[in-house]
Amino acid sequence: MKVRMAPVQMFLMLFIVQTGTVFISFQTRMIEVLGRDAWWVLVALGLLYFPHIWLFERFHHSFSWTPVVSILYGLYWFYTMVSFTSYTVYTLNVWAFPKTPLVVVIVMITILLYAASVSKPSTAVNLGVIMMPLIIIFIVFLLFSVKSLVWTNLFPVGESDLKTLLKGMGPSQMPFIGIELYLLLRPFTKGKLTNRSLIVYSGLWHLFFLFMLVVPLAFFSLKEFEIVNHPIIYILKSQYVTFVERLDLIFIYIWMAWSIVTLCIYGFAIMRLMDLNHIKKPPRLAAFLCVPFVAIALFLAVKERITIAAILFPYFHLLFAFILPLIVIFFNRRKQRKEETRP
């Protein structure tokens, strides 16, 4: 099935995938390891985002979705979907639906994902547009907390030694997860992308995650992060406004929609892999995958297993966002040069 999208739609899909689900919790692990140094580490690492995405733009024509590569990425994105679903369901169970069985919520999310995945590609492409107003509302709500921030909580910095900084590289990778989707979405995007557009997107991504990190770091003391697992939710819960009784519940529903749209885009990506490799009857295969999806998500929807999954993600990210693209692009370009020099 032919898929075409505008550059704005592609960037919006990429932004939602990279922010959805992880942005409410990545702060805790980073701050536990790096303390006040977390914010400047993110500033430094975020500057590497543009070169990364620029290299993808420069060499995406040399990245081929062979059956083996597609299977590897398909399995990785399936694991990502399952892990994100289990974390979403666990969080909803704690904050919004404590009396609803986990399996019921997982099945409902799975049905939504299946419906979005087998529908027209334009459905997943346009879901990001629907999320824009909700993202803006969320940011406005979080800005209410600015008056309560203690900016001196951000200092002093430079207290972490080299060993601690290296240990902090793991949790610092969580905001970068999903960047490899650029390699899949780019061929469906019309026209040439300028460096300016890449810089603008990279800057927005960087500012968003920096804002999500600095606000909790300035709101809570370092000791409080030992007991606060979802700092953004706690911050919104503490805010009082006259027109809404509980901002945290409104945010939970916004985040739930955000997470589901993120999962739908991953589902869209897996379906495109099936199309690129000419898999017969993709909807039937997608329906078959729903069974292990529900079972694995239910198994992982426990705090201890969610923590283990979060620890594994940086290693998978290193493999699928750096090592595997480098290997595929290197061998494809080498093959192309041999064909060009062949008499």
From TrEMBL:
InterPro entries per record: Spore_GerAB
Q: What is its main location?
A: membrane
Transmembrane recorded as keyword: yes
Q: How does it sit in the membrane?
A: Multi-pass membrane protein
One Pfam family name from the record?
Spore_permease
Q: Does the keyword Lyase apply?
A: no
Q: Where, per UniProt, does this protein localize?
A: Membrane
Q: Which domain of life is it from?
A: Bacteria
| Assigned keywords, A-Z | Germination, Membrane, Transmembrane, Transmembrane helix, Transport
Q: Give me the segments passing through the membrane.
A: 7-26, 38-56, 68-90, 96-116, 123-144, 197-220, 250-273, 285-302, 308-332
Matches recorded under PANTHER family: SPORE GERMINATION PROTEIN A2
Family of the protein in this entry: Belongs to the amino acid-polyamine-organocation (APC) superfamily. Spore germination protein (SGP) (TC 2.A.3.9) family.
Q: What is this protein called?
A: Spore germination protein (Amino acid permease)
Which organism is the protein's source? Bhargavaea ullalensis
